[in-house]
Structures
1.
Amino acid sequence: SDDQTARIWDANNGQELLTFYGQTINVTNAAYSPDGARIATAIGNSQVKVWDAATGQELLTLAGHSGDLTTVAFSFDGTRIVSASRDGTARVWNVSPSGEFQTLVNGPAILSQIGAKLAYSPDGTRLAVAYSDPTAKVWDMTSGKLLFSLDGHRDAVVFIAYNFDGTRIATAARDGTAKVWDAKTGKEVLTLSGHENAVFGVSFSPDGSRIATASVDSTARVWDARTGKELLKLVGHSNWVVGVAFSPDSSRMATSSFDSTAIVWDAVTGKKLFSLTGHIDTVRQVIFSPDGIRLATAGLEGNAKLWDAETGKELLTLSGHTGQVFSVAFSPDGRTVATASGDKTAKVWDALTGKELLTLHAPDGLTSVAFSPDGSQLAVASRDGTNRIYLLKIEDLVALARQRVTRSLTTEECQQFLHVEQCPSTP
């Protein structure tokens, strides 16, 4: 509460049972431990406090955040506490005086709206994140542990991508270069130099032989992935080129630009094949579907579009966001499309009909979206410096809910929250 207290009430008669004093500023969130023996409170002065739920005695103070706290929760087994803060981090703590266990997300608020900023490894075990500083970080998706940082750029890293076998990571930066890194060790392998201004996009060809980059100098370039030698320079856009992607068979490329168009190219000769026209603002990103039959584009006018990859014909417009759309992604099976917007939402759409299937809300504008390799999770990157993982499969949501709820859901609650007519049977 704003009165600097947390309180416990009898759920049957509403009688106040305990008041927790000792906070010197507003209490923003509170959570019980799974066994009901402790309560954790999130305080506006960047601290977490842990209390004895029976006596109200303060047990622990966990300090380490540099911004106001917004959320606190216990792990399922009660041995750890996770806290989220306006400083752009989430932290996991051992529930003992030893303090912080690990930081899950650690980066400045993302000031730039350019760049995808996150990428799953092909096996789904790691998440690479580009922040608005000259570094990128690679995280273990099981433990949340920071594995290593990619340090070497002289200006902000704005895009990041894995190659298709997961052995290399590429980063694009405002220093006018792209770099290639060993995905296992984080060691720098190549620097791609030749652009005359910031590099905003980078992509590996699926066959692993080439790397494409997109730049503010209004060109895209193709490089030998082994030697770093420049192979092609693609000229055709009239403004910044900010996105680039290869087709699944590595035969074609697509680029997106501030000139409100995307262009499809022959990836071997560099010949322009056709343009995608229909957006009325910057085309922030362009991608091929997993089968190579369609293209998707993200437009800053607030729409995403789907196109025929052979003819360039517009197939669908995905309208529903109230802010700029910065990122678009196909699910691994190509049946759904996800979009990330500055309106603080990510949306999932049916890729054949354009029907909106799901809206996911975040506390700040979103800049990037990516499906996990098995399609069961959706990762989003936010301007506040945090990255969130959403479960998409109903069975995963039910399993998670069963670990957290203290009673069975009613039929009405199952219909409202799980969107099923009857509650799933309990094993």
2.
Amino acid sequence: MGKARSPRYPAIGLEEAIQRIEAVYKKDYQNKIPKRVVAEHMGYASLNGKSLGVISAAAKYGLLEGRADEMRVSDEALEMIAHAPGSPERVAAIKAAASKPELFAELDQKFLGGKASDSAIRSYLITQKFLPRAADIILRSYRGTKEVVAAEAAENRELACVEDGLNQGGETDSSGEFGSRGEHLKMEGSCALSSGERV
């Protein structure tokens, strides 16, 4: 029987990783601090299996950098923290973070960005020597990460619709009317599609 594959994957999804790293930033900004202090800022009493797994996940997403006594919130994480949801900078940073874990990149390539059933992805993971329990954790983290990327992209489209509406609302045609009916209908249809894709 082949050896079980090493658990080199994020134990949590990107959304939780961002929340944990925001907690670290609120306490120590981008200061270099010991791993023990990182765990405390994340809400853990000590370094243990759970806290080490979350810290490792944050590092795999590129949100934490450094080792042992010199860990810090990364510049990539700061892009997410500093910019509002849906902003181009935050969207780009989240997309980049989602593709950083090597296993997630492997799944993206194998399944066209995750366009496959949970059963198909789980079966593939098991054939790659991941234990069933590990496969379930990976699948949950992978799907959760995809949801964050999709939600952020939808937020970005909605903001773009609002901005387009404001821009069109400030322009008048030769008759003094604010934009054409066709333009407004086109904009409303695009925004409706954006909202529908989020569900």
